[in-house]
Amino acid sequence: MPKGNLELKERKKEEIIKAACKLFAERGYYNTTIPDIADAIGMSVGNIYNYFKSKEELAKFIMQYSSKLLGEEIRKINEMDISTKEKIFMIVRKFFEISEERPELIEYFLRVFLANREVFSEGCEGFLCVSEVVTELSIFLEEGAKKGDLRQQDFFPAFVTLMGPLGGMIFLKGEEILPLKPIEYTDQLAENIWNALKA
Asked: At 116, phi and psi to the nearest 5?
């Protein structure tokens, strides 16, 4: 396939993902149909099925796509020659930057992925759909503990200590409770996470 056609195909795929994310988060997974998604982007239903065989396949792909996007950003931070504390600040900031640039992805995670676990049961159980993020955070926590910067502890409490507050801030923003944008809380939140995880 010529390069131009591949780029066009990727752009179309992005459009489908963005529209599906938004509609799934706003209306719910079960109240959104493939024709609804097709209408939102002016594409035929048949054409969408050229990209995704079913609504369930699309739903799983969106989750894997989001995980890959965030996972790549955390990997870049992991590879930087900076302190563990600085890495925490950068992870928090990057998460909030993505939530501002691509709010539909974070909304999707909170309102669709967590609320409709049965849809993600085959091939997307547990951490399977978010494996890139989990892998990179696992590396970050392990490296921090090896350096003596972070306390040695079980992965799950450490993971929740790091990611829980970020999801909480996005949830509060979605409920229109936060007086400021989440990114404006980066320093305070990162400091809290650092204090909770440090050795």
From this structure: -130, 55
Q: Which two tokens stand for residue 62?
A: 């969106």
Cross-strand pairs, 198: 150
Using H for helix, E for strand and C for coil, what is the string for 95-125? Answer: HHHHHHHCHHHHHHHHHHHCCCHHHHCCCCC
Q: pTM of the full predicted structure?
A: 0.87
* Residue 76: CA count within 13 A, CB half-sphere: 8
Task: Map residue 151 onto helix, strand or coil.
Answer: coil
Domain boundary assignment for the chain = 55-197
**pLDDT tens by residue, 134-186:** 999 999 999 999 999 999 999 999 999 999 999 899 889 988 999 999 999 99
Write down the residue that tokens 């392990």 correspond to: 142
Can you list the residues of the chain whose pLDDT is less than 70? 1-3
CA distances from 93 to 90, 168, 172, 183, 184 (A): 5, 15, 17, 6, 9
SS3 assignment, position 13: helix
Q: Count of H helices and E strands in the chain? A: 9, 0
Separation between Cα atoms, residue 45 and residue 33, nearest integer Å: 10
User: How far apart are the C-alpha atoms of 199 and 186, rounded to whole Å?
Assistant: 21
CATH class (in words) of the domain with range 55-197? mainly alpha
- What's the Cα-to-Cα distance from 176 to each of 37, 99, 171, 189, rounded to whole Å? 26, 15, 9, 19
